[in-house]
Amino acid sequence: MDPYRLVDADALSLAATLRASQSCALGTLTDGAPVVSRAACLWVAGVGLTLLVSSLSDHAKSLRADPRCSALLGDPGTKGDPLTHPRLTVRGRAAVCAKDELRTEWLKQRPKTKLYFDFADFAVWRIEVDDALLNGGFGKAYRLSPEDLERA
Predict the structure, then answer these.
(1) Within a 10 A sphere around the Cβ of 90, how many other Cβ atoms?
(2) Where are the domains of the chain?
(3) Which residues form a coiled coil (predicted)?
(4) In this structure, which topology does domain 9-144 adopt according to CATH?
């Protein structure tokens, strides 16, 4: 039995809301072992999910060694059962992209990053999405393609 629903307008709307997350839990592999950290993120139209990461961080070193990663977007909120809150897990491979080309969009959408965006050790990474899992709450699970995420 497939637990995933067909992607519909409600799923795309929820994915669009979660794409606006300002940070994500970033899962990387360090010497083959999973590690999770927090990273600033921004979904850029035509580019996809981008991360602003210091090259001094362990997760940047992990991404350079093995680009496979996942990012969990969505906050559990302060009330109720955290597992009933929507979340989006994106899976793919990360690569450094042209920081200067994304500077305007990052500073417009995430103005607080102005404090450190131009630091020499910070780079913008793009996750080339393989697929995504959207959990909209109990019984509302969807498997999304990269095309679904772009349409959201």
Answers:
(1) 28
(2) 9-144
(3) none
(4) Pnp Oxidase; Chain A (2.30.110)
pLDDT at 137 over 90: no
Separation CA 59–CA 111 (nearest Å): 23
Given a cut of 90, is residue 73 above it in pLDDT?
yes
Q: Which two tokens stand for residue 135?
A: 């959990």
In degrees and rounded to multiples of 5, residue 80 shows phi and psi of: 80, -175
Which of 139, 144, 134, 109 is closest to 124 using CA atoms? 109
- The CA distances from residue 51 to 22, 25, 43, 58, 103, in Å, are 10, 11, 9, 14, 12
| Strand, coil or helix: 145 | coil
Q: What digits encode the pLDDT tens for the residues 113-131?
A: 999 999 999 999 999 999 9
Predicted structure pTM score: 0.93
Q: What is the distance between the alpha carbons of residues 44 and 105, in angstroms, rounded to a whole number?
A: 8
